[in-house]
Amino acid sequence: MNTLRIMAMLGILALASCVSQKKYMALQEKVEVCESTLGDSRNKVAVLENNLANEKNRVKSLEQQMEYFKSTNTDLLARLSDLSVVSKSGAESIKQSLEALNEQNRYIKDLTTSMQRKDSINLVLVMNLKRSLDDFNDDDINIEVKKGVVYVSISDKMLFRSGSYQISDRAEEVIGKIAKIVNDHNELDILVEGHTDNVPIANECMMDNWDLSVKRATSIVRLMQNKFGVQPSRMTAGGRSEYLPKTTNETVEGRAKNRRTEIVILPKLDQFFELLEPPTASIQENG
User: Fold this and answer.
1) Can you tell me whether residue 188 is helix, strand or coil?
2) What is the 3-state secondary structure (H, E, C) of 56-110?
3) Quick one: pLDDT at residue 42?
4) pLDDT tier at 208, thresholds 50, 70, 90
């Protein structure tokens, strides 16, 4: 800039002697305009250079962001791929769990249906037994549903003479009515249990209360089979001796209640255990 100015001034001085004052002034004005224009141009160049530097920085920042996003997307795709594998495995596991739950629900539904059917049969049995045995004293015969099965408890004095297992004529009438009802339900089994009080017994026929309770049970079973046609495969005879009393043995009344024979009407044991057995094989396969 200084060199240009000096040359311009020298030119002006050289011409000063040759031109008029007016021309000199006009020429000087043009020089100042050129200097101003040159300064503006340099300022614009500086601004453009600064803008260019800023744009370069922006481009570099954008390139860095692009690299970051590329890296992030690659990692995300890898994770999505892993998630896809996990989801397939998880879906299969959920499917197996649902199948197992459905199997268990079917089992519970079937079990509930069977239990409801059994309860209905028990209700019918109780009603029929009470109607059939209505002529007998309630103190001698008690009919109830206990532990999900029907119990017919018959007092000792109605069935046997004291200390004996010989059945009385009156007992045959009672057993006959019970046998008629159980014969209408071939899907049920019969358990006959003999019970005694705690008074010891010992004679030439029986060693103790175990013997007495068992012989009384077998007498009832034999009568139901031979006279009333109950299938022997449906029946079980057992003796409980004095060890399952209903009440105290300290009184005469208590001992009388404990001397009894119970006829228990229950589902066939094999069907009962099949009913209780869950479908473990299919559950284990699904688990």
Assistant:
1) strand
2) HHHHHHHHHHHHHHHHHHHHHHHHHHHHHHHHHHHHHHHHHHHHHHHHHHHHHHH
3) 72
4) very high
